[in-house]
TrEMBL record:
Enzyme class: transferase
UniProt entry keywords in alphabetical sequence: Membrane, Transmembrane, Transmembrane helix
Domain of life: Bacteria
Matching CDD domains: GGDEF (cd01949)
InterPro entries referenced in this protein's UniProt entry, alphabetically: Diguanylate_Cyclase (IPR050469), GGDEF_dom (IPR000160), Nucleotide_cyclase (IPR029787), Rev_trsase/Diguanyl_cyclase (IPR043128)
Protein name according to UniProt: diguanylate cyclase
UniProt cross-references to Gene3D superfamilies, sorted A to Z: 3.30.70.270
Pfam families found in the cross-reference section: GGDEF
Length: 390
């Protein structure tokens, strides 16, 4: 590291950021690039331009009055945008205005110091401002610490430590103007350059790995969630049902199951097209949610058949819930591009019994649903209680 003069280190940072820009250009993002990765790619491009200007100024290719203020202005803007990418990744949508303010303030302070025309003051301002902006990156990565992954936590801590190292040059001038033993200005410069290089690498690979983490979580979610209606699919519903099946073997309040099927749904797809059919399914899910408690669970089993789990609900109460949903569906037609589509649904209702398996439970609910269909549709039918059935 001691063999690298400042001009060479700036050139290394310029080439590194340019290489990362090329990497992102050829990276396969799939059908759509995540917004956070798009913001981060912009930050890398701005920082690549900044380090390139500073490298050209250091090599006397460009005059210093042009390369130095323009290079640092772009650098501060790039790091501010990098913090914005972190806030976007954390799901904080209001990051744009604070990022703009932070970047503009840093540029204004540095330009004021540059106009004073003192090299030491410029170096002090550059170190402190870069350190502060990278601390903002660390704060963005650490947002939602309790629920953050280990990778996000590691990146947040590493970025904060390296940001303090970057700011150490300025802090040493303010706190230790006479120096302190081995802490020389040259050593601080080398440490600051190394920290900037590590920040470039760590945040680059960290952002890509965070993207892979996010994609993995989305794939895991799609295994148990129906992408059209955003409710549990068959696997997700059965996984949530399992503990309630076990609780049914203990004395306590019963748990009810409602199975509903849309009547004559095939005509909707045939007459109005599949987009209209998708709109009907989403509309039905929204109507069901309005009639349910937070503790109730709605899932899409297959096609146009849905199931509703009603914890701590007796059969009579479940029949009333199903009737409210039936009435809401029947009285709320769906507006499509071509027509108002009226829909009805049939319901089968039962409660979980101690001896039930999922097969017997759904068989009984399906039998009640079949009775509602045979009775003329747009009806609610309940399974017989165990005593009457016997």
């Amino acid at each position: 590291m001691s063999n690298l003069d400042p001009t060479t280190m700036v050139l290394v940072l310029a080439l590194g950021n340019l290489a990362l820009c090329a990497l992102l250009t050829f990276f396969d993002h799939g059908t759509a690039r995540p917004p956070a990765l798009g913001v981060w790619a912009l930050a890398r491009q701005v920082q690549a331009g900044a380090w390139t200007l500073l490298a050209l100024g250091g090599a006397s290719v460009l005059p210093e009055p042009l390369s130095l203020p323009a290079g640092f202005a772009l650098l501060f803007a790039g790091v501010a945008i990098e913090a914005g990418a972190g806030w976007e990744e954390a799901g904080r949508d209001g990051w744009r205005r604070p990022t703009l303010v932070a970047g503009t303030l840093a540029i204004g302070v540095f330009l004021a110091c540059y106009l004073v025309d003192q090299g030491g003051l410029r170096s002090l301002a550059a170190s402190l401002l870069l350190g502060a902006l990278y601390l903002n990156v660390a704060a963005a990565l650490g947002a939602g610490w309790a629920g953050a992954s280990l990778l996000r936590r590691f990146l947040a801590v590493l970025t904060a430590v390296l940001a303090l190292v970057v700011a150490a040059r300025g802090l040493s001038v303010l706190l230790l103007p006479g120096g302190w033993r081995w802490l020389s200005s040259e050593l601080l410069r080398q440490l600051s350059s190394a920290a900037l290089y590590l920040l470039m690498l760590a945040n680059a690979f960290g952002m890509l790995l965070l993207g892979r983490e996010r994609a993995g979580r989305e794939l895991a979610r799609l295994e148990v969630v129906d992408p059209l209606t955003n409710v549990p699919n068959r696997r997700g519903f059965f996984a949530a049902l399992a503990p309630w099946m076990a609780l049914a073997r203990r004395p306590g309040q019963p748990t009810a199951l409602v199975v509903l099927d849309l009547d004559g749904f095939k005509r909707v797809n045939d007459a109005y097209g599949h987009p209209a059919g998708d709109a009907v399914l989403r509309h039905v899910v929204e109507l069901c949610r309005r009639q349910l408690r937070d503790s109730d669970l709605l899932g899409r089993l297959v096609g146009v058949e849905f199931a509703i789990l009603l914890p701590r609900t007796r059969l009579e109460e479940a029949l009333l819930v199903a009737e409210r949903i039936r009435a809401a569906i029947a009285s709320s037609p769906v507006k499509s591009e071509r027509a108002m589509i009226a829909m009805t649904a049939s319901f089968g209702v039962t409660v979980i019994r101690p001896e039930d398996s999922t097969v017997t439970l759904f068989q009984r609910a399906d039998d009640a649903l079949r009775d509602a269909k045979d009775g003329g549709r747009n009806r609610v039918s309940g399974a017989l209680p165990a005593a009457l059935e016997a």
